[in-house]
Amino acid sequence: MNLVPRFSFKYRGKPFDLSMAKVNPTDYGYLYELADGLCVELHVKEYPAYHAIQWLLWFENRGEYDSGLISDILDCDATWCFAEVPGQTPPLTMYDTDGCAGYEAYLRSDRIAEECKVHPTNMSLGTSRSFHPMGGRSSSGQMPFFEFYTQNRGLHAIIGWSGQWRASFAHAQGETLEIKSGLEYTAFKLHPGERIRTSSILLMEFFGSRVQGSNQLRRLIKHELCPFDAEQFPFALEGMGLTTERHLYHLNKYKDHGVKANYYWIDAGWYGKGGTPGAADWYKQVGNWQVRPDEHPDGLHDVVDTVHASGMKFLLWMEPERAYPGTDLALAHPDWLYPLDGFYLLLRLDKDEVREYLFDVICSFIDELDIKCFRQDFNMEPLQSWRITDEMDRGGMNEIKYIMNLYRLWDDLRAKYPDLVIDNCASGGRRIDAESLQRAIPIWRTDAFCEPDLDPDAIQTQMFGYNRLVPCSGGVCKRMGDTYATRSSYAPAYVGSWWWTDRPDRPEPDAQKLAWMAKMCDEYRSLRHFFSCDFYPLENCGWSYEHGGWAAYRYDRPEQGDGMIMAFRRAGSNCTTSCYVLEGLQPDATYTVTDIDTGEMTEHCGKALTEQGLTVTIPERYMSKILVYKIKA
Question: Whole-angstrom Cα distance, residue 265 to residue 119?
Answer without folding.
Answer: 35
